[in-house]
Design brief:
InterPro entries: HTH_17 (IPR041657). This is Helix-turn-helix domain-containing protein. The protein is of the alpha+beta class and about 70 residues long. About 45% of the residues lie in helices and about 15% in strands. Strands 1-3-2 form a three-stranded antiparallel beta sheet. Strand 2 and strand 3 form a beta hairpin. It is globular.
Length: about 70
Amino acid sequence: MISELPDPNTLMTVPEFCLLVGVSKDTFYKWRQIPGAAPLARKLPNGSLRILGADFAAWLDRLRSDAA
């Protein structure tokens, strides 16, 4: 599903992340309840979440390390 990593300084919305990874928003929010299962997300003052491209890349690296 992931053809290209986002720019490390890009802030992705939850729907953008879900589309990139190929999961539903419900799955993303379930992952957030499990430590380390979802990438770090920042909460904006309006309550919405954003995922920094660098945090997304770090999350993918952790998944790769866990699978090895």
